[in-house]
Amino acid sequence: MGDAVGLLQFLKAVGEMARGALSPTISPVWERHLLNARTPPRVTYAHLEFDQEFMDRNDDEITQPNNMVNLSFFFGSNEISTLRKLIPPHYQCTTHDILTACLWRCHTKALQPDPDQHIRLICIVNTRSKFNPPLPLGYYGNTIAYPTTVTTADKLCQSPLEYTIELVKHTKGKATEEYMKSTADFLVTNGRPGLALNRWSFLLSNLTRIKFQEVDFGWGKAVYGGDAHNTDGKHLIPFTNSKGEDGIVVPLYLPALIMERFVNELNSLLKNENPNGNHNYIKSNM
């Protein structure tokens, strides 16, 4: 029905009226026909995000509720600077790109897959800016695309980090207006399948520009806005830690053994050798 941008617009509208406004600054726009499937439908992309061949029927065996751990990892300027030292000085990439690449690689290594195991990256991309003419201001429907890239565990883990970053860039770059139209056509012609997620899928969304913490119902701005107990993917969320440092927090929900391996892989990248054994995470009860 909606996405993070639409939800934020709704929450801000409620906040404005709670503070006394007679109507919201931005009026809601329905107009769902703008993203309807075409007539006739025309699928122009391979939509791997819905490919049921990637489903792993044994996933339930390793994701028992009593075997899961929920932790949140904070990345401030020091952590991001350390990660950037892993790539050549003049290599151009965003903080989102390198953080996604490092998290994906650490997650894959933690799974300990066979070298030829197919590994998927699914990027959740807001496509509002991709449409020409633009979607109307106030449109709060779902404009999310799930472009997907597949590689092997060996290539992902053994290649230079720039290889993984390029895969991230390539994946996000698929999310065009035509990709969204193709997605609608694919869903209509294939019975609206759900996302094909399994243990070998790394699904990530960048919420650093979605300012949930700016919502104000009359009690002031929120301390935090975003996932606290996340079970359906990985999200980059803007966060201010207890020291007052702005950065990005990533809540993860993984089986205990995989979480332990993930922490070790991440600390290896960050060269965190704290003699007290403290890892770079926050217990996620936010």
From TrEMBL:
<dbReference type="Pfam" id="PF02458">
    <property type="entry name" value="Transferase"/>
</dbReference>
<dbReference type="GO" id="GO:0016740">
    <property type="term" value="F:transferase activity"/>
</dbReference>
<keyword id="KW-0808">Transferase</keyword>
<comment type="similarity">
    <text>Belongs to the plant acyltransferase family.</text>
</comment>
<dbReference type="InterPro" id="IPR023213">
    <property type="entry name" value="CAT-like_dom_sf"/>
</dbReference>
<protein>
    <recommendedName>
        <fullName>Benzyl alcohol O-benzoyltransferase</fullName>
    </recommendedName>
</protein>
<dbReference type="InterPro" id="IPR050898">
    <property type="entry name" value="Plant_acyltransferase"/>
</dbReference>
